[in-house]
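Appendix B. One record, verbatim.
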Amino acid sequence: MNIAESAKTQENILQQIKPLRLMDDVLMVKCFENNKECTELLLQPILKMSTLQVKEVTSVWHEASVGLNVFATDRQGWTFQIKVFQDSTADRDKKVGMDLYSAELSAAHTDTDTDRNIAGHYTVYIVEHGVERKALAHSGIILDGGTTDAWWGFKLNTIYVNGDRKNRSPLGKLMYDFSCTDPSYMNYPQLADRVRYFKEDRQGVQDLCEILEEKRKGVQKYEASQYYPEMEEGRN
């Protein structure tokens, strides 16, 4: 590849990255993964736990979507397992499979790590285009929520956050930041710095490109399994 072709390839990559927002799962995961401060900034207003301290933040894949897997503690030393996914719909019925998957992962992890004293399991969906539902708190930003009793004795709490509802509350400002393509206009400097790193820094761009490629392969595999389910069964 000559210099001109290399420059063109680099420009194409930057053009793909430029419109990405925190609402896009790949950028969301890269910005929050292994970043405890930013993850606390996100989760404290959603869970209404101002003293929540994040201990671990990793990525977790479900079909073609990637989200966050978080372990956090409160002042009493209880541990909470929280999964965060971006979603384009507030249709609660469509979340059942992912909720059960999330809960199964929680139970499996707890079986191998009983010292965590897990007090609660949460699945948070940040819904890009939410519908108006019964508001629980935060002036309608929390769309809906519920608690499910799992067969192994844990309670799975599900929370839907309305990404369309932006106001001057901490969560409303976060949802505004989730919709920004330009970090210069974001409310929270911590998030702006992370977005800027993955959009402008050479290493950050490379890291983002890697998860974009992983996402592309995941989408192809998922679509193939929908058209040819026997192919997916053959892999198992």
